[in-house]
Amino acid sequence: MTNQIAIVLLVLVLALFAADALVLHWNLPLFLGKEFAGLIEYLSFWR
Predict the structure, then answer these.
(1) DSSP of 1-47
(2) Residue 23 is part of which domain span?
(3) What is the pTM of this model?
């Protein structure tokens, strides 16, 4: 992955979070936090 691709992906993710905060109201940070916590619980099972 080149630096240019990484920067474009970062800008797209930031734009999605900004659009969520301003217009969409999907609560993406909360959703992602809950999903990440579930992933941690799932992975801790295999430990």
Answers:
(1) --HHHHHHHHHHHHHHHHHIIIII---HHHHHHHHHHHHHHHHHHT-
(2) 3-45
(3) 0.76
Among 17, 43, 15, 46, which Cα is nearest to 30's? 17
Q: From first to last of its 47 residues, what are the pLDDT tens digits of the chain? A: 899 999 999 999 999 999 999 999 999 999 999 999 999 999 998 77
Amino acid at 46: W
Domain tally for the chain?
1
* In contact, 14 and 26? CB cutoff 8 Å: no
* φ, ψ for residue 46, nearest 5 deg: -85, -5
